[in-house]
Write a structure and sequence with these properties.
Mean pLDDT: 97
Strand content: over 45%
Number of strands: 11
Oligomer: single chain
Distance between the termini: 40 Å
């Protein structure tokens, strides 16, 4: 079965950095695009970043463009989100997402990221 396990969240000061990881299993990881979403308290889940199956194409929501970088290691079945120059508004639970060929979404358990002075 599909499993997505996020890690790397924590507490960070404004301007700081964190790197999130998502270890995937149960599907042919190298064949699928991957996404990172986040959900802040009281808000809906927001798409943050996208990466194509081969890593050649990436895309970001405007609010993180130039600060966050999504990458993947297909040999390790892992997708990453490097977050730099972090802001308090980046505070959220971050989720890794896999969408299969039937458009069924799979989610990890999420990892909490808190940006506070």
């Amino acid at each position: 079965q599909v499993q997505l396990v996020e890690s790397g969240g924590g507490l960070v000061q404004p301007g700081g950095s964190l790197r999130l990881s998502c270890a995937a299993s149960g599907f042919p990881f190298r064949l699928y695009a991957m996404r990172w979403f986040r959900q802040a308290p009281g808000k809906g889940r927001e798409l943050v970043a996208f990466i194509s199956s081969d890593g050649a194409t990436t895309d970001y929501t405007d609010s993180v463009q130039g600060r966050f970088t999504i990458s993947r290691d297909n040999a390790k079945n892992t997708v990453y989100l490097q977050m730099n120059k972090m802001k308090p508004e980046d505070t959220a639970v971050y989720y890794c997402n896999h969408r299969n060929g039937d458009n069924v979404n799979y989610w990890g358990q999420g990892t909490q990221v808190t940006v506070v002075s």
